[in-house]
Specification:
Elements (H helix, E strand, L loop, with lengths): L1 H35 L18 H8 L1 H32 L6 H13 L2 H11 L6 H7 L15 H27 L2 H9 L4 H12 L1 H15 L4 H6 L11 H11 L3 H31 L1
Helix pairs in contact: 1-13, 3-7, 3-10, 4-7, 10-13, 12-13
Length: about 290
């Protein structure tokens, strides 16, 4: 019995730090958010906080900016996920070979991942500058443009998608590279002996061998994409015409810029429900992939 109690105490000691961190940084904020969502809490006037019931959620139903932020977020996810996966896979295929100086190329492709998103966003803002930006200068040399890029509601989100895919694909590239190196070489040798072309080897050997990794990478990108805030904050401020306003950025602005913490908490609660639904779908996809 003493031994059992000692083992229990040891186990509790090991999990205590994780439990404390989850409680402080996850459970407590969630409970506070849940409570504030039913109030008119203003962070500058906390003494005037009153219970308003479902008024915040009723207001959300008519909030066109919030609706736009939800649509923008899903558009961003639908665009960035396939683009970033394809870029990562393409780069992994390029560097999955034995050649002189290949480590330099791997480092170069991976480098954007370790850069701060704030720095990268500022850099690309200059690249997208409609007056003297690098991209318009390059396009102008071949007789195209100038384009407004971030100042045009039709292209602003696409510009952020391209930046995000470029910045993040290096990490997924390394994951794909490890998967490529795990595919048995004799499969390709047997395919070559049977007269299979490179494209046939890619379709029938490479893609099936990377199936589980592709699912894992895609789910990771989806999770990150729903948290989009830094790029629109630094590059467009959510504009033009709310074309790049995202859910997380709208929650941040409502709670900390306009000081409407109660209303922002209601937004955060709706966002939590959306994320939970996405997570359930992801779990089903992952389970199905593992069964196959």
């Amino acid at each position: 019995m003493k031994k059992l109690n000692k083992e229990n105490l040891t186990g509790l000691a090991f999990i205590a730090p994780a439990v404390i961190l989850l409680t402080v940084f996850l459970l407590v904020p969630f409970l506070l958010t849940l409570g504030y969502s039913f109030t008119n809490y203003n962070i500058l006037k906390p003494q005037q906080m009153e219970f308003v019931g479902l008024a915040n959620f009723s207001k959300l139903m008519k909030d066109t900016v919030f609706h736009k932020s939800i649509i923008n977020t899903f558009v961003f996810v639908l665009l960035v996920v396939p683009l970033q996966v394809c870029l990562a896979l393409g780069l992994a295929l390029l560097i999955n070979r034995k050649m002189r100086g290949i480590s330099v190329y791997r480092l170069a492709f991976f480098a954007p991942t370790v850069l701060s998103l704030v720095v990268v966003s500022i850099l690309w803002t200059y690249i997208y500058n409609p007056n003297n930006g690098l991209l318009n200068a390059l396009l102008g040399s071949v007789g195209l443009g100038p384009f407004k890029f971030l100042n045009d509601p039709k292209t602003a989100m696409l510009c952020i998608v391209i930046l995000s895919a470029w910045q993040g694909c290096g990490f997924q590239m390394m994951i794909f590279l490890s998967g490529l190196q795990d595919i048995p070489v004799h499969l390709y040798e047997a395919a070559e002996m049977d007269g299979a072309a490179k494209i046939q080897q890619f379709i029938h050997i490479t893609l099936p061998g990377l199936k589980n990794i592709a699912v894992f990478v895609s789910l990771n990108i989806v999770v990150s994409a729903f948290q989009l805030i830094i790029q629109p904050m630094m590059m467009t401020g959510g504009g033009p015409q709310n074309a790049t306003m995202t859910i997380v950025y709208e929650i941040y602005q409502t709670g900390f810029r306009y000081n409407m913490m109660g209303y922002g908490s209601a937004m955060a609660l709706v966002f939590t429900v959306i994320v939970l639904v996405i997570s359930l779908i992801q779990n089903k996809i992952t389970s199905k992939s593992n069964e196959d």
